[in-house]
Amino acid sequence: MVKKPKTVDHEQQATIPINCDEIDFKALRKKLKAYIKEKQPEIDEQLKKLEKANGVSPEGLRVVINI
Amino acid sequence: MSPFDFVILPFTADNLYGTLSSDNRLVEVLPKNEREIYIYRYLQSNAKSIVVEQPYVDGDFMEDFATYYVRCYKPYNRFCKRLHFFGLEKNDLMEALEAALFTNPESAEMIYLNDNYLGFVVSRSLPNAIIGRTILKPQHTANHIRYEGIKTYHAHPFGLNLSVDSIAFQEQDSVLAACATVSLWSCLHITSEFFGTSMPRPAVITQTATQYFRKTRPIPSRGLEISQLCDAITHAGLEPEVFEIVETTPILSLIYSYLRLRIPVILVILIEDKGYHAVTITGYSLKQDTQPAKEVSETEKCIPMSGSRIDKFYAHDDQIGPFSELNVISHATPIKHQGRSYSVTFEGGWLKENVQSHLTIYPQFIVIPIYNKIRITFIDLQRQLTKIDMIISSLESDKTAMINHEWDIYLTDTVTFKQSVKGQNLNHDYLKELLLDPQPRFFWRVILTIDETIAVEWLADATDIPTAVPFFKTIWYNDKVKCLFENSKIVDQKTGLPRY
To answer: Is the pTM of this model over 0.90?
Structure first.
């Protein structure tokens, strides 16, 4: 049976400057957790603003397009 | 000349305006009409000859005629003229027509004729707005220009089988159709084929739009409200997806995301010193090296998206012409107009009177006639990506891993997706897995690129519940990104789907 690869071969793989061997993932996970906690109010505010962009106001529905 | 000869004229301004004319509209006044001048300029570089098909029965005009014009005291002609445009000189075209006339649609003669066919314009016998149903090949072609909202139209003059990829255009007659009706009419031409829904004629659109709510008499038409436009869309068997442009709306990316499904988008605009107008967006120009526009107000946040590099849209504007240009004007500092601020405005064929400078076009609403099962909107998806984008941005600013990233987000259907992945450089077994995997009919493609290299793609079910997490499939394109995202627990290790 052919072993199924997990990812896709891509000719430009080398161009992305990530070196997993040099990253301390334990420290990174901790840092990300703290970052998300700190940013949560900002994220919540952003989500609220985006909700307003999802639809149309009652006044908007009454706009007459007439040129 | 035999009455059974083709009527072929060299393509010149005089011949075009002359053949467009009728008893109700004299040729002397024609060159002053902007739409006819636009058509001439549009075709000028490619068209060499005009073939006149007369009389021509046009279904759209016949409906208008039966609804209104037949009851006028003045006798209007129910027959139209149809002008076909070819990129062949008169004598060459005569030979090509003679050769193709007696052959089958697959013949070399017919293919040659089709290769040189540019489309047609129906001329209505009206005092104004003589440009009826018009199907013209898109004029601007380049690798960075894509026309998404188009389909193949067939024309059969003299039993020939001519075809052209386009979207129907017509000038508003201000009797049965104003701009909103015409823009929706164009749009429904494409959605009818894509979704299998109805393709109502302008008179029917105006009637269905005004059947429930009206402030004034609907015909002669003096325009439509957004809510009436929604009623007409519902009557055509689709759902009206409406977005009001606010300071947080990434307008370019939003339009792009729906256009990629190959359906046109209606853009309602406020034209400086004029009023509200509707156009049908059918294509865009997106160059890889264009600096991304700031799509939202400077005080607002927005995830970086490919659509922000669009520098131009192509729109059917019934007051200008088919595939007219709408240039994107990005403002580093948003400009104010009537109490609202705009980070993106447009400039197009609308000019200030007696001054050759452009009027500013302020985007107001986006209206998309969409299939009822497409429930997750672009904005819903943007909400889903807000958190993970912030995390990826933090990795960048922290210089942990990446330099810059961008999201390419657009709506697609399973058939188009499976055809497109066949063209990618995917491993055979992995490609087979993707092709055999059952999918929803419509879904969003969310492609993350890092330093212009595709890193990962997530598919999000467009038919899902808006409050749910719609992602259902991960396609990894890069081992390094996979390693980073999995080990930092940004994504689920088993499924690869975002954890935030």
So the answer is: yes
